[in-house]
Amino acid sequence: MNGRLSDNEEGLLSAFDHGFTVGDGVFETCKVVEGEAFALTRHLARLQRSARGLALPDPDEQLVRDGVNTLLAAEPDAGRLRITYTGGPGPLGSERGEAGTTLVLAVSTGGSWEPTTKVSVVPWIRNERSAVAGLKTTSYAENVVALSAAHDAGASEAIFANSRGELCEGTGSNIFVVIDGELLTPELGSGCLAGITRELVVEWSGAREASLGIDALASATEAFLTSSTRDVQPIHAIDDRVLRDTPGPVTMKARDTFTQQSSLSLDP
Hints:
Blueprint: H1 18-21, E1 25-33, E2 36-37, H2 40-53, H3 61-74, E3 80-86, E4 102-108, E5 117-126, H4 141-152, E6 157-162, E7 167-170, E8 174-179, E9 182-186, H5 196-205, E10 208-210, H6 216-219, E11 222-227, E12 231-238, E13 241-242, H7 249-264
Parallel strand pairs: 5-6, 5-12, 9-10
Antiparallel strand pairs: 1-2, 1-3, 3-4, 6-7, 8-9, 8-11, 11-12, 12-13
Helix pairs in contact: 5-7
């Protein structure tokens, strides 16, 4: 935290930190491969974009990189890295204080996902006109509620539409669908997060960004999720609709291409 290495039992964060009291912060999650954070340069660029979206000062990139190196050297078996950057200590309200920002880096084991998964469409929406649309902020309460509902439905992820009835994203993932043999993903104007794995899959597989109605899920012959921890995870069921022959050929090609390309460089 702010350049100091500590174990997870020490109390480090002020009870007045704006990231804690009002969710005034941004973050990135990277998978760790062979002691190195995957796609760190892209993650740090998005961290900066999110910080600017909240009118926070740019994070010190070199401080973050030095902290990542120190932390991963101390925890060589880590599988997941989180970088959190907040408005720092402030009043118990929405107004920021003047104490400066807080930077926290933390690692944990990586965990694993099932080879395929079920998703559930939830009744709540993403607001594509929100002041924080497309930013990776620490304000995750609506994701907690939606993900709990998805788990109750036997799914590992919840899928949101936006206020226009368009397919948007998951709580911590992006979604791709195959319609008439074409690989598609919601455009950023839908309000979805510009996911790093999403970005790489679009670049490497030639997927097309498009405006898609939520009913695209009913006509898709294949679908998959992407995220920094899931990579490319095929979807075998959308609520009660089972997708046959999961993973399908387009999904397998996208997954294999991602695996091959990401193995060439840990910072693509």
